[in-house]
Amino acid sequence: MAQEIELKLELTRDAANAIAVSDVLANAPKISQQCSIYFDTPESRLAKAGLSLRIRESGGKRVQTIKSDRGNAAGLFTRTERERTVQDDTPVLDDATLISPVLQDCADLIAPVFEVQIERRTWTLNEHDAEIELVLDRGEVIAGERRSPICELELELKHGPPTALFAIARRLAAVAPVRIGVLTKAERGYRLAGPVMKAVTAAPILISNEMSSAQAFQHIVQSCLRHFRLNEPLICGDDRAAALHQARVALRRLGSAFAVFKADIDHRGAGLADEVRWLASELGDARNLDVLIERTKPGSLQDQLAAARNRAYDRVAVILALPRARLLFLDLTEWVTTGGGLSATGNGAANDRPLQECAEAALTRFRRKVSRRKHLANATDETRHEIRKTAKKLRYTAEFFAALFKTPRQSRRYKRFLAALETLQDRLGALNDLATAKSMLETLCLAGNRHAAKVSGKGRRKRLLRLAAVAHKDWVGTKQFW
Fold first, then answer.
1. What's the mean pLDDT in 220-236?
2. Given 147, 176, 196, which residue is the final one in a domain?
3. What average pLDDT is seen over the chain?
């Protein structure tokens, strides 16, 4: 059983061509054609267990590989793998494969699920006291009648410090645009074989009390990065509104993680947190216009708002293509996975402080901030917006640490607490939508449109204020689950 440490980067074919002839890769590559068949049961038992089973043919030789993947990996993948040569495209499933307990009595149901056909170009780089195997894969995933292109770089660390992977990645990024990759080839295949992909919601955060605060923070950050990157490519597609919304949720969750562990974050981390806030704000206009158009009836006003939304999405595409945005996720990945992240000697001593203690302190802090704002009706729009943002942080923090509170009583209280908090968020969100609509219509010089008053919610504000006050009182009355 070997361990593989690998940095994945996604890029376009034009970018791949530019990198392949650049000074970064001065030597001639080794070129091979590879065809990999991935196997599983009809119920995808291996995938659900975090395993992949493939047989790869290259140069007349076949190698069977079983890999164990971490579900929240983003950019930097650390995986165990077991390989053996085989004679044909039939998997060898003896006790040495270590997957018999997963398959149980279903070994005879193992069958091909999809194929990956690629041209692989391989370079060996010896830099920064490290040996790195860099491969450029171009080809496609095939699942039945469906096909999806692959163009990615993999930087595998043979020996040396993981920071060397990121140093090479930055040199590549200076030649052509690259982005952190979050999908293995196995994941690409399973996604292609399944339903057509839509916007992706946040995955559960699986942490435990055995983790240090620093380990939990790393796990949470990687989950948020993966959430964002899975939605980013969809922002230019048919499901763009939902994808943009989920991308912003990922950034807000990431910002909340920084807020939870604020006492232990170093200077570089504080700068990265600022960049996360910058990117989230840059996506705001497009999201606000999506919400506003949903409340607008067909007609001249909706047409003008739709035109403004198209311009906003064009700007989003420009922002996401900027080196500032692309390199943010490379910087975050390096910082959180290669010894940065939380300080072991800071105010909170993140590697020594029990995770439960950290979770309870953060939940109590955010709850106190939301609870003390009792007079919502008399508050300004800005103040209610700040309360709403803190309520979001509280909700995301509760979701981050939900796995730590699993007694029957805690589970019951958790459900009631989250339900009441979500109702409060919805009420405050409706009020914020009114304020945002008014501001957006004025900015676009559309406040004089005869339908503008209805869209901006004139006449609904008093009722929403009353509902928000009731929701706040109900939530304050719920018992904490920690």
1. 94
2. 196
3. 91
**The two structure tokens encoding residue 50:** 């975090």
pLDDT in tens, 379-421: 888 999 999 999 999 999 999 999 999 999 999 999 999 999 9
Distance CA 162, CA 6 (A): 9
Q: ∠286-290-294 over CA atoms, to 5°?
A: 165
Distance separating alpha carbons of residues 32 and 120, to the nearest angstrom: 5
User: Is 301 a member of any domain?
Assistant: no
CB atoms within 10 A of CB 449: 18
Give the model's pLDDT for residue 415: 97
| Structural domains in the chain (count) | 2
Residue 463, Cβ neighbours under 10 Å: how many?
11
Those residues whose C-beta lies under 8 Å from the C-beta of residue 75, and which sit 6 or more positions away, are 7, 8, 9, 180, 181, 182, 225, 329, 330, 333, 337
Give the closest residue to 292 by CA, choosing from 391, 432, 427, 387.
Answer: 432
The terminus-to-terminus CA distance of the chain in angstroms comes to 40
DSSP 6: E
> Is residue 210 domain-resident?
no
Q: How far apart are CA 385 and CA 427, in angstroms?
A: 11
Eight-state DSSP code of residue 134: E
Count Cβ atoms below 10 Å from residue 477 Cβ, excluding itself. 9
Contact predicate 212/220, CB 8 Å: no
Report the distance separating Cα 389 and Cα 393, nearest Å. Answer: 6
Alpha carbon distance 346, 353 (integer Å): 11
**Which tokens sit at 383?**
């103040």
CA angle (24, 26, 28) in 5-degree steps? 130
Residue 227 counted as domain residue: no
pLDDT digits (tens, 9 = 90+) for 328-374: 999 999 999 886 666 544 444 455 678 999 999 999 999 999 998 77
Among 46, 62, 171, 148, which Cα is nearest to 102's?
46
Q: What is the pLDDT of residues 367-381, one digit of tens each?
A: 999 998 778 878 888
Compute the average pLDDT of residues 278-285. 96
Indicate whether 64 belongs to any domain.
yes
Tokens of 311: 């311009």
Q: Which domain holds residue 143?
A: 1-196
Residue 219 tokens, joined: 């796990």
- Name the strand (E) or helix (H) holding 349: none
What whole-number distance in Å separates Cα of residue 370 and Cα of residue 421? 10
Domain end (from 161, 196, 231): 196
CATH number of the domain encompassing residue 120: 2.40.320.10
